[in-house]
Design goal:
By secondary structure, the chain is of the alpha/beta class. It has two domains: about 120 residues, Aspartate Aminotransferase, domain 1 (Alpha-Beta Complex); about 220 residues, Type I PLP-dependent aspartate aminotransferase-like (Major domain) (Aspartate Aminotransferase, domain 2), CATH 3.40.640. The chain contains eleven helices and twelve strands. The strands form three sheets. Strands 2-8-7-6-5-3-4 form a seven-stranded mixed sheet, sandwiched between helices. Strands 9-12-11 form a three-stranded antiparallel sheet, with helices on one face. Helix 4 links the parallel strand 3 and strand 4. Helix 2 packs parallel to helix 8. The longest helix is centred in the last third of the chain and has 24 residues. Bound molecules: pyridoxal-5'-phosphate. The site of pyridoxal-5'-phosphate has 12 residues, from helix 3.
C-alpha cells in the first residue's frame, strides 16, 4: 500500500530551491574540510567531562538559563552574564536573531545583508525565515567594497547585517575603519560581528586574539557572535551572541527554553573552568601550523591567501577533489562560481599537513 501524500504544497516555496546541508557519512583519515580543531581532547579533559556528566540528573530538563555555563563563559569572555544569549551553535543564534527581527519593512520582506562570498548559513537561514538575503560582493582581494556596501545599505535598509571577520572561506579579517563607518552610518541595523574564527586572529601563537568586542561599549547596534566549534568542541554545539542586555532580554523570548542539552552545558563548563589552558594551547598550535601549511602551499605554487583563521584558501581546482579524496584527504571545494578554482584547507596536525603535502605531490 502506498503511503498518503503529506501537504507538500503548503511548504515555503523557497524550500524547493534549497538543498539540505549534508556531510559525508564516513570521514576520510585526513579531514581538512570543516574548520574543526585537529586536536582531540586530552584524556584528562575527557575524564573530568565524563565525571561531571555521570552525576547529571538525566530525568530532569536541563537548566534553561544555563547558569553554570553562562558564568564560565562570561568569565572566559570578560563579559556580563546578561550580555549573552546562548545557542546550539552560532547556527541557532543566527536563527534566534532572524526570528526576533522578522518584521516586514516598508511593505517588503525584511533584509539580511552580508558581504560575500561568506558563511553559507547567512543566506540559507535568511531564506528559510522569510527574509530577503542581500549579498554584497567583496572586491577582487576579498576585501569589503565600501561604496557597494553603502549603496546596499541605502537601497535595502537591512534589519540585520552579518560580517564574518576573519571571513569564511577567505581567511582575511575585514578593514575595521570600513566596518566602523558602516556601524556609525546605519544605526537602525543590528551589525553582527561574527568572530567564529576570532580566537585565531593573531600573528604569532603567543599573541592575544584580536576581537572587536570593545565596540560593544560604544555602539548599541553592534553584537558579537562566536562559538566553541572551531576551538576543539564542535561536537557540543555551543555558540553565543554578546550584545546590549536590553537586546538580549528581548532575544531570550525567541529562544527555545531548553535549547542546550545538559550534557553540552556541563561539558563546556568543565572545559572552560578547568581546562582553559589546554584550549589555548591547541589554538596556539593551530596558529603555528597555519604558517607551515601556508608555506607548503606557496612552495607548490597554490597561491595561499593570507589567513587569520584556522584554514587557508588556496588555488586548487575542483578537479583535484576526487584524486585527493582517493589519497584520504578531504578539502572544501565550492559550488559558488566566485570560488571556482579555490579550495579551503583547514589547518591540521603536523602529521596531517605532511599527509596533505604528500597527497598534493602525488596527485598534482
Ligand atoms: C563564519 C561562521 N560563523 C558561524 C559558523 C557556525 O558555527 P557553529 O558551529 O557554532 O554553528 C561557522 C561555521 O562554519 C562559520 O564559518
Amino acid at each position: 500500500m502506498s503511503r498518503p501524500t503529506p501537504p507538500l504544497s503548503r511548504l515555503r516555496p523557497i524550500l524547493a530551491e534549497l538543498k539540505a546541508y549534508t556531510v559525508p557519512a564516513a570521514p576520510p583519515p585526513v579531514k581538512l574540510d570543516a574548520n574543526e580543531s585537529p586536536w582531540p581532547l586530552a584524556e584528562t579533559v575527557r575524564r573530568s567531562i565524563a565525571d561531571a556528566v555521570a552525576s547529571l540528573p538525566f530525568h530532569r530538563y536541563p537548566d534553561g538559563r544555563a547558569t553554570g555555563l553562562r558564568r564560565a563563559l562570561a568569565r572566559h569572555l570578560d563579559a556580563d552574564g546578561d550580555e549573552l544569549i546562548l545557542g546550539a551553535g552560532s547556527d541557532e543564534v543566527i536563527a534566534i536573531l532572524l526570528q526576533a527581527f522578522m518584521t516586514p519593512h516598508e511593505g517588503r520582506a525584511p533584509v539580511v545583508l552580508f558581504p560575500g562570498p561568506s558563511f553559507v548559513m547567512y543566506r540559507i537561514s535568511a531564506l528559510t525565515h522569510g527574509y530577503e538575503p542581500v549579498e554584497v560582493p567583496l572586491d577582487a582581494d576579498f576585501a569589503l567594497d565600501p561604496a557597494a556596501m553603502h549603496a546596499a545599505f541605502r537601497d535595502h535598509a537591512p534589519a540585520l547585517a552579518f560580517y564574518a571577520t576573519p571571513n569564511n572561506p577567505t581567511g582575511n579579517p575585514y578593514d575595521e575603519a570600513v566596518l566602523r563607518d558602516l556601524v556609525a552610518s546605519y544605526p537602525d541595523t543590528l551589525h553582527i560581528i561574527d568572530e567564529a574564527y576570532g580566537p585565531f586572529a593573531r600573528q604569532r601563537p603567543e599573541d592575544r586574539a584580536h576581537t572587536l568586542s570593545p565596540w560593544l561599549a560604544e555602539h548599541g547596534n553592534v553584537a558579537v557572535m562566536s562559538t566553541l566549534s572551531k576551538i576543539g568542541l564542535a561536537a557540543l554545539r555551543l555558540g553565543w551572541l554578546r550584545a546590549h542586555p536590553a537586546l538580549v532580554h528581548e532575544l531570550e523570548k525567541a529562544r527555545q527554553p531548553f535549547n542546550l542539552s545538559a550534557t553540552a552545558q556541563i561539558a563546556a563548563q568543565v572545559v572552560l573552568e578547568q581546562h582553559g589552558d589546554a584550549v589555548e594551547e591547541a589554538i596556539r598550535a593551530v596558529v603555528a601550523e597555519r604558517e607551515v601549511l601556508s608555506a607548503g602551499l606557496a612552495e607548490r605554487g597554490l597561491d595561499p591567501r593570507p589567513s587569520q583563521a584556522n584554514f587557508v584558501l588556496a588555488r586548487l581546482p575542483a578537479s583535484r577533489k576526487e584524486p585527493l579524496l582517493a589519497q584520504g584527504v578531504a578539502l572544501r571545494f565550492f559550488s559558488d562560481p566566485r570560488l571556482d578554482g579555490w579550495a579551503r584547507v583547514t589547518v591540521g596536525t603536523p602529521a596531517e599537513t605532511r599527509a596533505l603535502f604528500a597527497a598534493l605531490d602525488a596527485t598534482g
